[in-house]
Give the backbone structure.
Amino acid sequence: MISEASRPYIDASVPVLREHGATITSRFYADMLGTHPALTRLFNMGNQAQGRQQQSLAAAVFAYAANIGNPAALGPVVERIVHKHVSVGIRAEHYPIVGHHLIKAIADTLGDAATPALLDAWREAYGSLARLLIQAEAEMYATAGIQPGDTRPMRVLEVVRESDNVLSIRFEPADGLPLPAFRAGQYVSVAVDLPGGRHQLRQYSLSDAPDGRTMRISVKREDAAADTPAGEVSNWLHANVRAGSVLRVSHPFGEFTPDTESDRPIVLLSAGIGITPMVAAVKRIAQVAPRRRVVFAHAARDAAHHALGAEVDALQAVMPNLAVVNFYEDADGRMDVAKLPAWQHEETDVYLCGPHKFMQAQWLALLQAGVPAARLHREVFGPELLDHLL
């Protein structure tokens, strides 16, 4: 929490700082990474190039400050950030570096408006958030039994092409130690050494149910577009990983974990590569409750870009109450919740995973259809923009 003396400065400045958020965080990253280039390994430099990382930091800090007295709203957000930070090895000593450069960027952007009292208030707000995250991350590291930044060697068993731009990579521990437990919906970080000596980490959802022996990720090749660079790590994995390759992989993390262990009806909605955690979830349900009522709907550009669909279709042979609906944009248009099988809105949890615009559209459509917000759960690719708190 922050003091009563600082609260008015925070309340008054949040709208102004949001207005200048992209400028502030662009300055912050340029200054911090220029001063501490080793920290580039902790950041997705593709998201940096697109400005998404900058948006994410601005959203997180300002949403925290604006909702600092609302723990019910902040709890899930903090949990999401903690899982992401632990997956890339954030340490307690990183926080003072971030705080110094963030406050400097605020001061540089606001100029004379950045009074000593205002900057002190934001130092206090950032310090409060930092302490909260440091404690939660320390507890998560301890529970997982790892040190920040730990990865393990994983030997690739097979590489399978799932669609025009998706490969599945299945691996097992190369060190002979037991595989860590995970829940459907969680992800791992994969560490890659790129040309020029650069080291990068990327998170990929685990795309198969736990079997105690292996893990699988399904990686979409991110091609360059007019406003986005090609995905360095995804393209490297597509070009270089073969059976027998060894990858460095983190412990599994992630708070987006669909309820796979009960027998209550469930709805799983995805788009694009967002299908990966949903496949893990429905395959886990097939293991523990094959007669459970499941609505599984997926949106893809076309059949050639529909990864893992055959695995989901095959589950209908053992899951009599599994309803599968596919939407191909070139033939059917985008996903329309009105075209899904009916379910009891008040009693059924709905899980969403896909690109940000898909998430926004389906979230609003489901609310308009009468699904309570408390029944909606989502996983968002890339930096979480926290639009529901802004």
